[in-house]
Amino acid sequence: MTARIIDGLLLSQQLRAEVAERTAELTARGYQPGLAVILVGNNVASQIYVRNKIKACNDNGLYSVYDCYTDDLTEADLLTRIGVLNSDPKIHGILVQLPLPPHINAYKIIEMIAPEKDVDGFHIANAGALMTGKPLFRPCTASGVLKMLEYQGIPLAGANAVVIGRSNIVGKPIAMLLVQADATVTICGRKTRDLAVHTRSADIIVAATGKRNLVTASMVKPGATVIDVGISRDDDGKLCGDVDFASVREVAGYLTPVPGGVGPMTITMLLISTIEAADRAAGGNGCDCTRLSGGLCSTRLQTLLI
Ligand code: NAD
């Protein structure tokens, strides 16, 4: 069997056409969706991610602000800046690129973002509400993964899903969304005794570790769906994921590539979250945002904020 490739670039292009259309509608009503992206320090990978996010805003008609600080920025100054963005009506979404330099407490910074502008979905109000299935925003990578599975029509209810990686910002939210879709979910991490025992019985494997070639063909059940979230570089400096693409392709039913898989979907879901936030600011009823991503309506927002 040769796996069908789930093309994240293609799906992103389709969704971004809707993003641009919806952005134009909101802009015409005086609510151009606006995203503020903050980068502190000179982490090369972060600089690339941030540039791609700003470019995606520009390409699709969103307003964007890019704050790029040197790594001697104080925590107090960053908190102040977020406070200003929280009350800026042109900004509907605020994203602080992680990791932050060690002298800045990332938890404190994320908690400073107004939950209704927390398009990354990392604020405790949204992370907590994810548990109940009703966050204002779902973390972008996790919702991108679910979007890819839905788009491909992969059955989730009753499926055995294994998520490898259990970080707060990637692995756990993916697992939570799979649980909400009625999958039976196993979460594996570094201390998992025998990873292959779990993955071999999985209908869906989501690998999110950053460990190159962690998932090999012998760990995959024939016909399974394999989603590769990981990003690392091979010995030649080429981007690669957690999955040994060449061998797993011969066993899996569906497989996402790196690059061109989950990465573009993460950015697309960020744009969608920003549109949802702008729609709520415009007093929208949420129907329009659900068309794109199954987001919450503004009445739901009001319920959550009181
Ligand atoms: P992290 O370092 O915070 O977490 C990695 C997780 O993987 C941990 O829970 C750890 O226990 C687990 N892990 C590590 N080695 C393992 C092993 N050998 N076996 C089982 N589990 C193991 O990283 P993160 O922020 O969760 O990101 C994970 C990966 O996803 C990274 O490569 C990151 O670059 C990538 N990422 C991709 C996107 C995207 O849009 N494609 C977005 C965010 C993160």
UniProtKB/TrEMBL annotation:
Domain Tetrahydrofolate dehydrogenase/cyclohydrolase NAD(P)-binding: 139-280
InterPro entries to which the protein is assigned, alphabetical: THF_DH/CycHdrlase, THF_DH/CycHdrlase_cat_dom, THF_DH/CycHdrlase_CS, THF_DH/CycHdrlase_NAD-bd_dom
GO cellular component: cytosol
Membrane spanning residue stretches: none
EC nos: 1.5.1.5, 3.5.4.9
Reaction catalysed by this enzyme: (6R)-5,10-methylene-5,6,7,8-tetrahydrofolate + NADP(+) = (6R)-5,10-methenyltetrahydrofolate + NADPH; (6R)-5,10-methenyltetrahydrofolate + H2O = (6R)-10-formyltetrahydrofolate + H(+)
Domain Tetrahydrofolate dehydrogenase/cyclohydrolase catalytic: 6-120
Keyword Glycoprotein: no
The keyword Amino-acid biosynthesis belongs to this UniProt entry's keyword annotation: yes
Assembly information from the UniProt record: Homodimer.
Stated family: Belongs to the tetrahydrofolate dehydrogenase/cyclohydrolase family.
HAMAP family, per the entry: THF_DHG_CYH
Protein name from the UniProt record: Bifunctional protein FolD
UniProt source species: Candidatus Vallotiella hemipterorum
Gene name per UniProt: folD
